[in-house]
Amino acid sequence: MGNKKSYTFRKFINDAHLWLGIASALVLFIVCLTGTIYTFKSEIEGFIEPDKYSLKEAIVETYDLDALTAFVAQESGLKVQRVTVGNNPLEPVQFSVAAKEKGKRGETLYVDPYKKEILGSGKGPASEFFMTVFKLHRWLLLDSSIGRPIVGWATIIFVILSISGLILWLPKKIKGWKSFKSGFKIKFNAKWKRINHDLHNTLGFYSLFLILVMSFSGLCWSFDWYRSGLSVVLGTEVFDRSETKLESVEVEGEETIDIKEALNVANEILSYDARTTTISFPKESKGVIEVHKNELSRFNETVFDKVFIDQYSGDIIKVEYFGDKTLGEKIAAQIKPLHLGTIYGTFSKVLYFIVCLIATSLPITGIFIWLNKMKKKPKNRNSVME
To answer: Rounded to two decimals, what is the model's pTM?
Structure first.
């Protein structure tokens, strides 16, 4: 009887990586593929319906936002809750209106401000398709109480696979830079088994960081305990949907200020050019007007400074600068754009698309590596397959 190789830590990591990968392969393939498709959702919708998401010309230099809001309310028969204006004059103005039925979600209307024409709503030809993609990504088209934890645990496994993959990527014996060299490149002139191995090993290494970002952020939607724990760690609530406790001073007989006046007040404080400006109207008589602005010069396209205004007097009640938030508050506010890849606009979307494609391929290349090892015959009876 020959000498048996000891069961090393690396062998344990290899086995854990292999069997966890096989167990989660199908779910991870579906989740990563749907994530890849969803990355450019808005661009695909714009391509399918260009007349709804872009204007052919700006007929006049300026338009009356108050009159436009009144027009949308009258035409839709619904209460306008929010107005979003972009810096591009050929972008339609977006109006968020309340739902027709209580308890239902409202919708977004896209409006040509120059022609005073409602171009369409957020629902379009691609809506049903992307809703299916969304449901596949979040809960595999199953009941959410079943599918959500399955996706969540598969995501946790993906984190383990990513970390164990990094350990396996490291050379067994480190003898300077040359030991790492092969892990950074794909040997395309080799046989397909080697190419497949490199595609799994090397591309997995390059995509590791963003895969972990997407995984850790995605878990916020899968498990309440994870989201609660992360909130404790960050020192602030993740997905905080609580209403602002700020109030306007209601004076009997006094009318509310108009949108133009609210914007003038906000622009005195936030005097920079904005990528987008959103005005949220108060839901009740003591509510406040909120103006959110995203600075055009910021690389991050998803952070906003906020001004809260008394709806009667026009006085500034509070100003929130994103830069003044704690690190935990900044991370909590950016969970969704960090997961979707919208945080840095087109730049981050392209990166996320590539990484999602790689992540989609990893279960496939991993299965092929396993099959190739299964086919490999041991040279003698004492051979142990790594």
So the answer is: 0.90
